[in-house]
């Protein structure tokens, strides 16, 4: 179960009053909504190979993930050769004998392709589903080099090769680049040594690759991921404000990692989602298009003991309302049908992909409200079926019971209550007011896709430990039921 201390940190930091700044994403026509897809790293690491990747593409297509909204299929580290070719170009490694055909293969299934790269003298590339994506390294080498068991996976970084490497991945059909300096910035390697201002260096490498990607003429989603450098060298939030540049001429990004790697552990979920909120608040909020804060891949279904089915539903719903990118890193071909249903829930996904792009925020304190978590966000008119006197704009709310019961299994259910005035509603067309008139609203369960009825002033859910509900609240214009 989630620890009370974790929620204390989450709540207090998320509620800090911070100065707002303008924040826009890379001007490449992408990024109006958080990305959705699949990534190889958390699941397979350096055990990835071409046959497994192709099988995953097939499984994603066969199981309906394209229709559910998942777009990018991304290949992370360990796809590359240890050397560039005689012309200085990147090369596929021996585990990807026909790697140059993968982009076409992913596209033939209706997805986009993604890759991974590094902005230092050595690199690693990442490919992502439904759109083709790639991963490159900004540092002297890829993270795989740091593992003595993976020396053969060493790749060259893109530092000094930005234009050439951007052109190469565009030729491969990539639609997504994950550009990572995480292993370049912490190892005292030139140009990342003690004499160099790390944030100034990151501003340079982010900008250079952003301009290089735009110069290809191909729309390529640009994700930058280096929370280690930001947190250890960058002065926390003030550092990220400098790193995430604000327009195309400076080479902005479409999304960025807001914390460390996710694990298949329910206890890590709250911390990662808290990072999304904190980073977004500190760079002026995020109502798309903007650089989306990425809590890392969804590890739902990899271990049903460490993340149960009940926790998996809460995990996915929480990511949805936080507007975190919905990038899976789980095995698709053998996926449990219950997990597939969670990951493809259309009305939960709709909250994440709501046209307004407004991020959910915590509205309760877990220790003031007896170990419960409640988040909420306004929905656009497009996401609310309005008729018969209901407002055209509604709200979504995530309600989670985190109260444990040491020594007692199973834990008894407890009531979690959302008060409509906590959403800023009054009895008159949802406007903020001190009026004590009753607030009447229709409540819909978005997981079960079922209207629950009309409620006055509040809605209460009976939830097991770690169980949640994700609901839509549509206020009634009239004060009478």
Structural class: alpha/beta
Characterize the overall form: globular
| Low-confidence blocks of residues | 1-23, 122-132, 145-154, 184-194, 245-250, 365-369, 428-433
Query: Major sheet: size, sense and barrel closure?
Result: 9 strands, mixed
Number of strands: 17
Number of helices: 13
Key terms:
single chain; 481 residues; alpha/beta; 9-stranded mixed sheet; 6-stranded antiparallel sheet; 13 helices; disordered N terminus
Written account of the structure:
The protein is of the alpha/beta class. It is built from 13 helices and 17 strands. The chain has helices spanning 4-14, 41-44, 50-62, 65-68, 102-108, 162-171, 198-215, 227-233, 237-243, 269-282, 309-321, 337-343, 346-352, and strands spanning 36-39, 72-74, 112-118, 128-137, 176-180, 221-225, 255-257, 292-294, 326-328, 361-362, 372-378, 395-401, 414-419, 440-445, 450-456, 458-463, 468-475. The strands form three sheets. Strands 1, 2, 3, 4, 5, 6, 7, 8 and 9 form a nine-stranded mixed sheet that branches. Strands 10-11-12-17-14-15 form a six-stranded antiparallel sheet. Helix 1 packs parallel to helix 10 (269-282), helix 7 runs parallel beside helix 9 and helix 11 (309-321) packs parallel to helix 13. It is globular and about 75 Å long. 53% of the residues are buried. Mean pLDDT is 77; it is low at 1-23, 122-132, 145-154, 184-194, 245-250, 365-369 and 428-433.
């Amino acid at each position: 179960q989630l620890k009370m201390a974790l929620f204390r940190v989450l709540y207090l930091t998320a509620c800090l009053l911070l100065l707002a700044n303008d924040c826009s994403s890379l001007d490449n026509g992408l990024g109006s909504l958080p990305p959705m897809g699949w990534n190889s790293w958390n699941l397979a690491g350096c055990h990835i190979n071409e046959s497994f990747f192709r099988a995953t593409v097939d499984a994603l297509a066969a199981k309906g993930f394209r229709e559910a909204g998942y777009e990018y299929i991304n290949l992370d580290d360990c796809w590359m050769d240890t050397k560039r070719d005689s012309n200085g170009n990147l090369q596929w490694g021996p585990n990807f004998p026909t790697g140059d055909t993968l982009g076409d293969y992913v596209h033939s299934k209706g997805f986009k392709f993604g890759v991974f790269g590094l902005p230092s003298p050595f690199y690693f590339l990442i490919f992502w589903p439904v759109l083709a994506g790639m991963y490159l390294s900004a540092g002297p080498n890829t993270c795989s080099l740091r593992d003595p068991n993976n020396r053969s996976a060493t790749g060259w970084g893109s530092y000094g090769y930005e234009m050439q490497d951007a052109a190469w991945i565009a030729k491969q059909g990539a639609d997504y680049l994950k550009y990572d300096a995480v292993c370049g910035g912490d190892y005292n390697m030139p140009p990342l040594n003690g004499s160099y201002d790390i944030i100034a260096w990151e501003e340079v490498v982010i900008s250079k690759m952003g301009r290089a990607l735009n110069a290809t003429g191909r729309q390529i989603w640009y994700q930058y991921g280096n929370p280690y450098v930001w947190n250890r060298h960058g002065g926390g939030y003030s550092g990220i404000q400098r790193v995430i540049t604000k327009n195309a001429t400076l080479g902005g990004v479409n999304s960025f990692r807001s914390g460390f790697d996710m694990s298949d552990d329910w206890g890590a979920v709250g911390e990662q989602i808290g990072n999304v909120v904190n980073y977004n608040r500190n760079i002026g909020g995020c109502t798309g298009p903007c650089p989306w804060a990425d809590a890392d891949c969804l590890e739902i279904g990899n271990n049903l003991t460490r993340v149960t089915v009940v926790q998996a539903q809460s995990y996915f719903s929480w990511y949805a309302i936080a507007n975190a990118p919905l990038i899976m890193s789980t095995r698709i071909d053998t996926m449990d049908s219950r997990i597939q249903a969670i990951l493809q829930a259309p009305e939960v996904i709709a909250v994440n992909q709501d046209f307004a792009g407004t991020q959910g925020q915590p509205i309760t304190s877990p220790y003031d409200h007896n170990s419960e978590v409640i988040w909420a966000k306004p929905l656009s008119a497009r996401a609310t079926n309005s008729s018969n006197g209901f407002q055209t704009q509604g709200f979504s709310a995530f309600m989670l019971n985190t109260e444990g019961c040491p020594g007692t299994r199973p834990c008894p259910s407890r009531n979690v209550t959302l008060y409509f005035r906590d959403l800023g509603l009054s009895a008159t067309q949802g406007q903020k007011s001190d009026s004590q008139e009753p607030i009447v609203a229709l409540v819909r369960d978005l997981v079960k896709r079922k209207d629950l009825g009309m409620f006055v002033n509040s809605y209460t859910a009976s939830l097991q430990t770690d169980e949640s509900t994700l609901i839509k609240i549509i206020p009634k214009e009239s004060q009478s039921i």
